[in-house]
Amino acid sequence: MTTRRKKIYEGKAKILYEGPEPGTLIQYFKDDATAFNAQKKAVLEGKGVINNRISEFVMTKLAAIGVHNHFIRRLNHREQLIKEVEIIPLEVICRNIAAGSLSKRLGLEEGTPLPRSIIEFCYKNDELGDPLVAEEHITAFNWATTQDIDDIMASTLRINDFLTGMFGAVGITLVDFKIEFGRVWEGDFSRIILADEISPDSCRLWDSTTNEKLDKDRFRRDLGDVIESYTEVARRLGIMKDMPTVIQGGLH
Ligand code: TMP
Question: Could you tell me the pTM of the whole model?
Fold first, then answer.
């Protein structure tokens, strides 16, 4: 089904194909999982299907509260139609609780609540391992303007508030997440919208009662039950009923 289309870009977890009309693309979710800049790799059967649904669910909810994003509609189990954007080469990370690279960098015990939500920017470049950058680098190298950064930060905090509430309501703590933004042009004017995906690949999600990890750290840290955990997130969000029966029945 996907073989004849023109491939625009292939990343580690997704492929972008040309869309049915100008200004659109098809985003295909692979089962591939990578960590540590692809030094660790696996195929996790069903991951793409679950992430396609979770990202659809989250993007649709965000659009409903006025957070403009690239999602147009889901096409099938692994694909969604999206708006074509010029990706801003930044990974925007928002953190509520210390974990991962922040814990390492600043010597903070994982699980320590942060005094306030913290936004970090990484330069999206696999060869360099997505290094942390400051606003100074972003504006000096023209990746985004000061106004763009203000918009991105305001939008990120709004997304954080919404997602914290959405996951909190189903007993999941949003520890941190990574998002990406893209530029869309309307004549001579551009605006920045949320792009990429929001899924357990790109968030840290802990069970609010047990602190059990329900996200990609299960893969990164060899904790097992990766798909089971992603499925649990989908189940709590109420979207398992829409999943193909092979996944509903359990893959492992
Ligand atoms: P970090 O603590 O490893 O910097 O990760 C912060 C958040 O960003 C976490 O939710 C996982 C997510 N993330 C990605 O989505 N892609 C990546 O390549 C990395 C390193 C982290």
Answer: 0.96
pLDDT confidence bin for 4, thresholds 50/70/90:
confident
Residue 204 alpha carbon to ligand 1 centre in Å? 8
Residues with CB under 6 A from ligand 1: 93, 99-102, 130, 176-178, 202-204
- The pick from 90, 93, 218 for probing ligand 1's pocket by mutation, whose C-beta has the most ligand atoms within 8 angstroms, reads 93
Q: What is the pLDDT of residues 96-138, one digit of tens each?
A: 999 999 999 999 999 999 999 999 999 999 999 999 999 999 9
Say yes or no: 66 and 143 in one domain: no
Distance 177 CA to ligand 1 centre (A): 7
Do residues 80 and 126 both lie within one domain? no
Total domains in the fold of the chain = 2
Q: Which atom of ligand 1 is nearest to the CA of 103?
A: 2
Residue 29, domain CATH: 3.30.200.20
User: Quick one: pLDDT at residue 251?
Assistant: 53
Q: What CATH number does residue 134 fall under?
A: 3.30.470.20
DSSP-derived secondary structure for 146-210: HHHHHHHHHHHHHHHHHHHHHHHTTTEEEEEEEEEEEEEEETTEEEEEEES--STTTEEEEETTT
